[in-house]
Amino acid sequence: MIGERRILLEPREVPLGGVRGMNVLRVLPHRNLPTIGAWCFLDRFGPADTRMRVEPHPHIGLQTVTWPLVGEIRHRDSLGSDADLRRGQLNLMTAGNGISHSEYSIGDDPIPLDALQFWVALPEGARQGAGGFERHTDLPAVTLAADEGADATATVVLGEFAGTVSPATVHTPIVGAEIVIPAGTRVRLPLRTDWEHAIMLVEGDASVSTHEMTQNDMLYLGDSRDAVEVTSAQGALLFLIGGEPFDDEIVMWWNFAGRTHDEIAEARTEWEAASARFGVVEGHDVRIPAPPLPDVRLMPRGRRI
């Protein structure tokens, strides 16, 4: 068991550069905490008026979870998927042994855009399997009875929360849920004691386990809790992630999640050689080249929390 924790994970600004041409706030991976459950990556891009053009790029060993807050995003991938995505909908892409995709904002002009982009590490078996894509437009919601004020509501994006299960495919015990806290509300969010959890403040104001949150901060709660108390004066939008601690150590580099340096190097070589492993995203003349590998062997990031 990890035990109860109350550790603030502050985001850092990361320039994506190149053809992506935008900055993001990165919360995961954290230098002391590579995973929370199987969640291994979290970026927030926006809010901004921007023309998003993320050309085809590869993934291995993970699922991408795209959760838009403002604006519309077009997803195309090497499986032939072509789907627009907007607020309240989920795009879930499973990379397996190899997939490539692109993400564009809708239209040719800059538009208001804000979204959360997560990666979920895949366990053995699933990470060597075939890729897949799912679009979910009707996700389940659950009402959370308030101790004070109006009741809160949660949309179960991935996995299971408060006895409600998302239809999206998962490969480990996990939770991802967007939670809306009305102004003047105090409410207890139910948690599983054998899972670790963390909560991000997306919008508004909130106190989580008596800790006053700042927008875009994530509070790591550890495990061994059956609930956590949240209060908000003006109203808040939160995102809860967690799950069974992910036992495998992963090597993350660029868009890849593997287990060894050699796996990552092989995937990079195959992407640069336009291998059939990653397929082709139709409708694009340009794709993102892989950066050079570092001069040292890639090693797993150890947990220090």
Kindly identify the CATH topology of the largest domain. Jelly Rolls
Rg on CA atoms, Å: 19 Å
Please give the CATH class of the largest domain. Answer: Mainly Beta
Structural class: mainly beta
Number of domains as seen in the coordinates: 2
Strand content: over 45%
- Which stretches are low in confidence, meaning pLDDT under 50 for 5 or more residues running? none
State the share of residues found in helices, binned by percent.
Answer: under 10%
Element-by-element helix/strand order: EEEEEEEEEEEEEEEEEEEEEEEEEEH
What is the total tally of β strands?
26
CATH-wise, what's the superfamily of the largest domain?
Jelly Rolls
- Overall geometry comes to globular
Provide the residue-averaged pLDDT. 95
The number of helical segments is: 1
Roughly how many Å apart are the termini? 12 Å
Please outline the major beta sheet.
8 strands, antiparallel
- Named at the architecture level, the CATH assignment of the largest domain is Sandwich
Domain Pirin N-terminal: 24-120
InterPro entries: Pirin, Pirin_C_dom, Pirin_N_dom, RmlC-like_jellyroll, RmlC_Cupin_sf
Family: Belongs to the pirin family.
Protein name: Redox-sensitive bicupin YhaK (Pirin superfamily)
